[in-house]
Amino acid sequence: MALLDLAPSRVMTREALAARLWEGAPAVKANASLRTLVSRIRAWEQGTSDTVLKVTPFTLGRDDTTLPSDLSRFLAIESVDSAASLRLLSELYAGDFLADIGDGAELTAQWLAEQRTWLRDRFVKLALAGVQHASGEVAQQVLRRLADEAPYDDAVARASMVAARNDPLEVRAIYDRYAARLSVDLGNAPEARTDALLRELTNETPAAAQFRLDEPSPAMAVSVDSIPRVLILPPADSPLPVPDRKLGEMLIDEVTHTLGRLRTFAVFAPHTARALANSPFPSGNPYGADYLVTARFAPSAPDTRLCIALTRLETHEQLLSEELRFTPADLSAHHFHLAAAIGTRLASGIERTERRVYRTTGSANAYVHYLLGCEDVRSVDLRIIRRAMSHFRKALKLSRDFAPARAMLARAISVECLLLDRDERARIEKAIALAREATDLDPLDPNGHREVGHALIYAGAIDEAVESLRSAAQLGPHSADVLFQYGDGLTHQGNIAEARQVLDKALALNPLAPDLYYWASASVDYFLGDYASASATAGHMKNRGPAARFIAAVEAMNGNLDEAARHRDIYLAEHPDFRLADYLFPFKPRELEHYFEGLRRAGFV
């Protein structure tokens, strides 16, 4: 029912629903299972006089005439304007969507993560509106829930302060707790609007918080003890001819090096793996491996089969079983590409398992915090970006030299500065320092170089930034995220035509892109004078609010002055003191004047 309630128009084709419910199963088997399920539901309906599904020969759906679920009732709430409706909202949203269901297949896991985030954000938005119309215990309970669901959201802190407005000491205590949480967890300070509200309610001036990167706790594990250890055994007693067997062993070595280069796993060296390949695996797991990869070659004319299995040693659960067919000529000519493909599949299997274990047990190592942060850092929602920062900081507490987490913490800080749209020189310098530390730890990882360049743009060092971004693109020429950032850097440098080519490649590699891709791509369209395309591209953003100022300029240049004024007002509601003279983000003079022309037409002064 959840799949249908969340589907567009609450309708799905039978084939699409079967494929989602039984992901990975053959279509014939999945469709048969769906028919059985529908038959059982229809039998239950006949015995209860309730209707659960609307069934046609080709589709299944739900509507207002079918039996409502808590989810459908939650989705039907458009506004909350009383204590009763606020209580209902809180009861219907009991926590994470389908929290008891672990991550299964890859697409299902991705869908669950997306829906959990979207539903949580919807609850926060509706509840924040609702607490303005309620008081007493109901409002207090919801505010406590909001603090748990969105611990770094200034809007939640402000709502709590307003609820306590008759007690200035409690207002100050709420502010202090929130400021301390931001400072300790994220090294940041409350927004200017939160400070202003404190002054209004208490006639005080809050002290500024100082940025710091928390030192790792001595009691916590560091380095490889806090990331998954993977042992990859080469094929044992392979029946292949000696030359092909040697190529096969080289392929498995390359898979080992592929995972090792990711810096998100600790991979045992091939020498140890070969020593273990032709003997029983030691009892008691004395080497502390978390995952075991076994490989086996099987001749089958006219080609050869490579069978790969991934096992989680703690539970002896087989997580992945892959079969790859190739000829000896393929192995010789495309051995690096085959290794990369196998490494990607193994990495995805380990990532899904680590996320599932975390969501089932609440136990997280550095790698899990890194994965959770990576899920969040693609957003343009300040609350979600701060959640990402918290995960990356926890990862670094557990593993100080975890270079990917250090680079992504730098990224989260840079994106936060973009969204806050205020002078954050000290924060940007910290982001640059973190990213450079990441490149020192792993000079061949393109993401560290990417984040050096990303932060340098906001520091105004555009040419130096593009050099770092170019280095990142050379190290990761097929990484969509690296290419996206490189294209954005070229835009700031004024190389608009080249930026268009690079961003087109990034979007081709990531066609269902995060909002920042579309924002950057629309900026290129704007500077090329293609305002209609800029408007259409910005329209792909799921959350257009953070880009309201830019969209106002786009629509003004399009001649849509009413729409331009609407987005100008959205931006000024969050930044009432903004003036063109205060604009922070660097462009070359020609592009900056072009942008200002749009802003002036939109009514900015």
- The coarse overall form would be globular
Count of separate DSSP helical elements? 27
Q: What characterizes the major β-sheet?
A: 5 strands, mixed
Residue fraction in strands: 5-15%
Computed Rg: 27 Å
Low-confidence blocks of residues? 205-225
| Estimated structural class | alpha/beta
Strand order of the largest sheet: 5-4-6-7-8
Based on the structure given, which CATH architecture of the largest domain is correct?
Answer: Alpha Horseshoe
Give the N-to-C terminal Cα separation. Answer: 51 Å
Structure description:
- There is one protein chain.
- The protein has 27 helices and eight strands.
- It folds into four domains: 201 residues, Serine Threonine Protein Phosphatase 5, Tetratricopeptide repeat; 134 residues, TolB, N-terminal domain (Rossmann fold), CATH 3.40.50.10070; 107 residues, Serine Threonine Protein Phosphatase 5, Tetratricopeptide repeat; 128 residues, Serine Threonine Protein Phosphatase 5, Tetratricopeptide repeat.
- The chain has 605 residues and is α/β, with parallel strands linked by helices.
- It starts with a helix and ends with a helix.
- Strand 7 and strand 8 form a beta hairpin.
- It is globular, with a radius of gyration of 27 Å.
- It is 61% helix and 7% strand.
- Helix 17 packs antiparallel against helix 18 and helix 20 runs antiparallel to helix 21.
- The strands form two sheets. The protein has a five-stranded mixed β-sheet with strand order 5-4-6-7-8.
